[in-house]
Design brief:
This protein is mainly beta. It has a 17-stranded parallel sheet that branches. The protein has a 12-stranded parallel sheet with strand order 5-8-11-13-15-17-19-21-23-25-27-29.
Length: 429
């Protein structure tokens, strides 16, 4: 009985639970800084399976360009015929300066491991990207099967050299693309684990057109004011599991976009940032398809949104079978929001008749505090209303009990079960 009361008290205090999970995830990430998932067995095993950047001419002093050394080490490892994993080693205690690099498969090796034990740091020279046609990427893995990227080291995007030139920081400047730190394109059986990714130029990690993906124990960090620095971006991928990550950024902690199917997210701490977002979907009258998304056991603090689905007018397709559950929020704006009239354009978006259909969405066991009056906001399309929206066991209060909160609904077909505070749809806009 005493243990039951203790557990109840724990979950009744959002801040207590938040701090607990934050410390657990911090320990999970930092405990891997001195070791690699490659494990010493492989690093110290047969030398022909390990391809160290230093053996291919890298300096590792953070000043000289080591891009070609990484490319050569990858090529040698990828083309090896070893029955053991071919390991590209980024040695501990060094900083390897890199420009744009694409590491491609398919590989002859049975599997590939990139053991980042030191630090990969982006060139501070923005002109290195201006000279080429690709400003959207920094380190790209493409078309690789059975790839693991791990090692307890860091990937540093040097984003502070880019952010002042963003149109979101300086309105007088034109909007230009900036690199994503880590990109995975057309990879299968992918594992990304035990890394620190810091200060990306824009998105920290993007998973595109990949299948069977495991992401675990990542620490992703950038200032809350850094523009477009999404933590983990997923699109056109299926069968993914993201767990035990701590994400602090200036944009969505996770952005889940078109073509994502069968994604399970658990034990993630988010904040600062813009929360966990499905979307945006349907931009520029495009079709979007998203299904089978579960966001489970997530703590958010100080974020601009909590559990969010956002779609543009004029799109088509669907976002369905989505569950947000077991979430704790502290000092969060817009804790629960579906917005089918989302617009993030320089000019106001025109009203349009079509929309991405949002259906079968569950918000369950969500509690905490908000700084906005609208704790639950269902802003749905009048032509394609949201349907099958379930609200269950929700308890959200104003931060510091400084006022009443409400729920606003527009064109939403919903149901509730258990205690739901604020009462659903107590106000209409």
């Amino acid at each position: 009985m005493a243990s039951s009361k203790l557990l109840l008290a724990f979950w009744a205090s959002p801040l207590l639970a938040l701090l607990f999970f934050s410390n657990v995830l911090e320990a999970a990430v930092t405990s891997n800084n001195g070791s690699s998932n490659v494990d010493a067995k492989l690093i110290n095993g047969r030398s022909q399976s390990v391809f160290s950047l230093d053996a291919f001419g890298a300096r590792g002093d953070g000043k000289h360009d080591d891009t070609q050394a990484l490319a050569k080490a990858w090529k040698a490892a990828c083309s090896s015929s070893s029955s053991r994993p071919a390991v590209v080693l980024v040695p501990r205690g060094k900083r390897y300066l890199l420009k744009l690099v694409t590491l491609s498969g398919p590989c002859k090796a049975a599997s590939m491991v990139v053991a980042v034990q030191g630090t990969l740091v982006a060139s501070p020279n923005r002109a290195a990207w201006d000279a080429g046609k690709d400003r959207r990427h920094w380190i790209v893995f493409r078309g690789v099967d059975k790839l693991a990227v791990n090692g307890g080291g860091a990937v540093d995007g040097n984003g502070q050299r880019w952010w002042p030139y963003s149109c979101k920081i300086n309105k007088a400047l034109p909007c230009k693309e900036a690199p994503t730190a880590l990109s995975f394109h057309f990879c299968t059986n992918l594992k990304v684990q035990d890394l620190k990714i810091v200060n990306s130029q824009q998105i920290h990690m993007s998973i595109e057109d990949c299948n069977n993906v495991q992401v675990a124990r990542l620490s992703i960090t950038a200032p809350g004011t850094s523009p477009n620095t999404d933590g983990i971006h997923i699109t056109r991928s299926r069968d993914l599991h993201v767990t035990n990550c701590k994400i602090k950024t200036g944009d969505d902690c996770m952005s889940i976009e078109n073509g994502t199917h069968n994604l399970y997210v658990s034990k993630v701490v988010c904040g600062p940032g813009h929360g966990i977002s499905i979307g945006s979907l349907g931009d520029d009258n495009s079709r979007a398809e998203v299904s089978g998304i579960t966001i489970d056991t997530v703590q958010l603090y100080g974020t601009a949104n909590g559990a969010r689905i956002k779609t543009y007018q004029g799109g088509s397709g669907y976002a369905r079978d989505i569950t947000f559950q077991n979430m704790i929020m502290d000092n969060v704006k817009n804790p629960i929001i579906i917005d089918q009239n989302y617009c993030d354009k320089a000019k106001p978006c025109k009203e349009q008749g079509s929309a991405v259909e949002v259906s079968n969405v569950v918000f369950k066991n969500i509690r905490g505090t908000t700084v906005t009056r609208d704790a639950i906001k269902l802003n749905c399309s009048k032509n394609v209303p949201c349907r099958g929206i379930a609200l269950q066991d929700i308890n959200i209060k104003m931060e510091g009990n400084k006022g009443a909160i409400e729920s606003t609904c527009q064109n939403a077909k919903w149901r509730k079960s258990g205690t739901v505070l604020p009462q659903p749809c107590t106000a209409k806009n």
